[in-house]
Write a structure and sequence with these properties.
The protein is an alpha+beta fold and 303 residues long. The protein contains seven helices and 13 strands.
Length: 303
């Protein structure tokens, strides 16, 4: 028998908790990176009943809660609605999130989230057993930055999705958190390398300085490691990507020109950082951030 020593047997700290806000602080997406998906799935079910929560999604071991900001009264009931998000309040460059729960749900609502990476400070009550518990955490306010990239490889060398992930992972930092990576299937045009797939990276940045440093670093890495002279890199700084839905649909249904892609980007607040032919697919990728299970199917459409 192997005897084990548990430092804190009733706490499983989340790997990270981040809050991305819209420009008016009316909506936020709380992104929780869990170390125990079973517990997070339980939270996802119960939190979905909170009046502030508009939508929930899970991608791997990350749970994403789209919420409206504000405060609500939770009516906690064992087994049926045993935990929830009570408030999401934006104050200057910080987001204050309050969770509450009964029993094991209270454990998750307090120390498990309080000890997550990205949390600046916290307050929590005693939890566990049959008690109701409440925990409040404060995290940096972030804005979403989407980077579409395509055409970094040739028919002989490379793969865009691997290069982009490795670059993003190296640049992950408190000021610019690497949130998601999505492969996007495009219409198989004649000029494709093989599978005609582009990539979108999602970051949460705390301020413009962090964003600019991130983007300069990504472009520098692409210039260094791309084996293609037609690399495209485009950037959209927005809470959602609705402005490029129409273009993405067109790019997944037929062949488009580089001139049309550049014109569309200029008309819809998308920055072009590298203007090779890859801008065509890079622009189409933006619409599919954080939808990796859908984006790989050509027949899928964004709702």
């Amino acid at each position: 028998m192997k005897e084990i020593e548990l430092k804190d047997p009733y706490t499983i700290p989340y790997k990270g908790i981040y809050a991305v806000c819209d420009k008016n602080n009316q909506y936020a997406e709380i992104i929780e990176h869990t170390d125990c998906y079973g517990g997070a799935a339980w939270s996802k079910f119960h939190y979905s009943h909170s009046s502030l929560v508009l939508n929930t999604r899970s991608i791997g071991n990350i749970i994403r809660y789209l919420v409206r900001t504000g405060t609500s009264d939770l009516d906690l009931k064992p087994s049926r609605s045993a935990a929830g998000i009570e408030s999401v309040v934006v104050s200057d460059d910080e987001v204050h999130i309050t969770y509450a729960g009964l029993g094991g749900g209270g454990v998750g609502a307090t120390k498990c989230r309080a000890l997550a990476e990205g949390v600046l400070r916290y307050e929590c009550t005693e939890s566990g057993g049959g008690r109701a518990a409440k925990g409040s955490i404060v995290v940096p306010r972030r804005e979403r930055v989407l980077i579409g990239i395509d055409d970094t490889d040739t028919k002989e060398t490379g793969a865009t999705w691997t290069l982009t992930h490795n670059i993003a992972k190296e640049l992950n930092c408190p000021g610019s958190v690497y949130i998601s990576h999505t492969l996007v299937q495009l219409y198989p045009v004649a000029a494709k390398t093989q599978n005609c797939v582009s990539t979108v990276l999602e970051f949460g940045c705390t301020d413009n300085a962090a964003k600019e440093e991130l983007l300069e670093s990504i472009r520098g890495a692409l210039l260094k490691y791309s084996v293609s002279d037609q690399t495209g890199m485009v950037v959209l700084s927005d809470f959602d990507a609705k402005e490029v839905y129409r273009y993405s649909k067109q790019c997944r249904q037929g062949e488009l020109t580089k001139d049309y892609a550049i014109q569309y980007a200029n008309e819809h607040s998308v920055e072009i950082w590298m203007n090779g032919n890859g801008v065509i697919g890079a622009l189409a990728a933006l619409a599919w951030f954080a939808r990796p299970d859908e984006s790989i199917r050509l027949e899928a459409e964004i709702e």
